[in-house]
Amino acid sequence: MKSKSLIIIIALLIISGFVFFTNYNKIQMQDEKVAATWSEVVNQYKRRADLVPNLTNTVKGYTTHEKDVFTQVTEARAKVGAIQITAEQLADPALFSKFQQAQSELSSALSRLIAVSENYPELKANTLYQNLMNQLEGTENRITVARGRYIEAVKNFNILIRQLPTKWIADMVGQHSKQQFMAENEKQISDPPTVNFGQ
To answer: Are 83 and 101 in contact (CB under 8 A)?
Structure first.
């Protein structure tokens, strides 16, 4: 009878160990996928930030009275450069929100810069400007794709660590939900922007 109980206990320990290590490995794989997709998001944002000085200088060469726009772009780019967030920090909602806010400000400033350029047909005909705009458009598309992959990776990770028995294992090893991109003001984003060249 004792040997039968011992066999049952050993079998339960083996099964528990198998469940633990299998789920632990799944958590680690999903965590690495989140980190890799986050690196791509950061890489594409950096590519955009690197295009900003050339684009600003090209537009500046054709315009004479748009100093406010250039200042906004420069300040927004500086904010983006000042906020660095690693894959390990993705569980910090405050830091993630600051990162997202800085990127949104740069996007808005770039939109204003592009709107200014619409007033200068000779600028729009400039080959360097056209090339920079093509690069910027391509980068914005890459950012969208990278963010989409990140959102999917985070969704899969967060679902995994909320399911049982994986939740218990995630709690034991200190894994927490990762932050998702979100719109601070969804109503504002759903409304098309107003562009007024009469001012």
So the answer is: no
Task: Say if 193 falls within a structural domain.
Answer: no
Binned at pLDDT 50, 70 and 90, residue 65 comes out as: low
Say if CB 59 and CB 123 are below 8 A apart.
Answer: yes
pLDDT 10s digits, 86-129: 888 888 888 888 898 999 999 988 888 888 888 788 887 788 88
40 closest CA partner among 150, 134, 137: 150
Smallest CA-to-CA distance from 132 within 31, 39, 62, 56 is with 56
- 76 occurs within a structural domain: yes
Residues 6+ apart with CB under 8 A from 26: 160, 166
CATH number, position 121: 1.20.1440.20
Domain that holds residue 91: 2-182
Q: Which residues contact 123 (CB under 8 A, 6 or more apart)?
A: 58, 59, 62, 63, 117, 129
- Note the pLDDT of residue 155: 94
For residue 199, tell me if it sits in a domain: no
Distance (Å, whole) CA 101 – CA 64: 29
Answer whether residue 30 is part of any domain: yes
Number of structural domains, the chain?
1
